[in-house]
Amino acid sequence: MPAYFWLRSQSTPLTLDIVSAMDDEEARLFLAEMRWGKGRQICPDCGVVDQHHTIRTRKQWRCKHCGRTFSVTTGTPFADHKIGYRKLLMAIFSFAINQKGLAALTLRRIIGGQYRTSFTLLQKIREALMLSVSTEKLSGVIEIDGGHFSGKKRKGRKKKKATPADKTQVPDKYSQHRTKTRASAFPFHPNRRIVIVMREMLGEKGKGAGRTVTAICRSENGADIESLVQSWVRKSSTIRSDELPAYGNLKLMGYLHDVVNHSEEFSTDEGINQNQAESFFSRMRRSCIGIYHRITPKYMLDYSCEMAWREDYRKADTQEQVKSLLRRVCSSGISIDWVNYCRGNKRKAELLFQASTS
Ligand SMILES: [Zn+2]
Fold it and tell me: What is the distance between the alpha carbons of residues 115 and 106, in angstroms, rounded to a whole number?
C-alpha cells in the first residue's frame, strides 16, 4: 500500500477533540505559543522578543522595554474580539483542517453564536491571507493559467417546442451562429472574472508545486498577463502556459516559454504540462460547487488567496497548518474591511491584483 503524504506524520495529530477540550486559558497560551514560539512574546510596538511581564488578571503582557500592554490578539484581525479564546482557536482550527474551505453556517454549528459572528470571523481570516501574501518573486519553473469563475449565464426555464421547420434545420448546438454568440457574450458577463494562477515548481526540492500566487483579471488578455508576469516572476525563469495568444510575448520579455497545446494534448512528450495550475483550479472549483456556491467578484481575490494557501500547505500536518495560518493572519495587521462590518463598514470596490485594460 502506498504511503500517502498525509499518513506519513509520526507525531500525534492535533484534533478538534483536543482543541475543544481546552479551557479559555489553555487556548490563550496555545495561541501565544503558536504565534510567537514557546516561552517568549514579541511586543507589537517595539518588536522586542523577550519573556515579557505577565499580567495574569488581565490575560496580557507588559513589554519590558517600552511598557506597552498587549494580548495575544493585539495588532491582529481578532483584536477586540468578543468571543473567547477557546472559540477563536476552534474557528482557526476548523478553517485550517477543511481542505475545500469552510462555510460560515458550518462554523456556526461548531462554535455556536450568531451567523454573522462566524461569517465575519472567516472573512477576516481570508482577508488576512490576502494581505499577507509574500511579495518575493517566483523563480525556476512556473506554471501559469487562467480559470473562469462566477457570473454564469442562467439557462431559461422553458424549453422551446420544436416546430416542423426546425427539424429540417441544423441544430443550434452545431451551428456557427451559436459558437459566435457564445464567444462574444462570454467575456462580457458582468460578474465573470478570470483567476490567474502562477505556481512555482519545487523541482529538485520535491514533487509538485511550492508557492502559489493568484490574481483576478477581467479577461485573459496579453497586457494583463505580461504586467502580471513582470511583477511576480524573475527574469530568465521558465514559464509553462497553454497556447492562448495572451502568452505569446513572454519570450520577447526575457523569459523561457514552454507551451502545451491543449487542443492536442495535456502533456507533451517532454513532460511539459500545467497540471499543478489545474490542480489549484480543481480545488477552487470544488470549493465553489460544494461549499461556497457563489463567490462575488468583490471578494474573489480573498477566496483565491485562501485556496492558494490551502494548496501550499496541502502536505503539512495539522499542527503545521494551524501554525502557518496563525502566523499569516497575525502578520497582516488589523482588519480593514471587516472591523465594524455589522455597523456599516464594507469594502467599497472589488480588488484586482491587476488593473485590467479591457
Ligand atoms: Zn515594546
Answer: 9
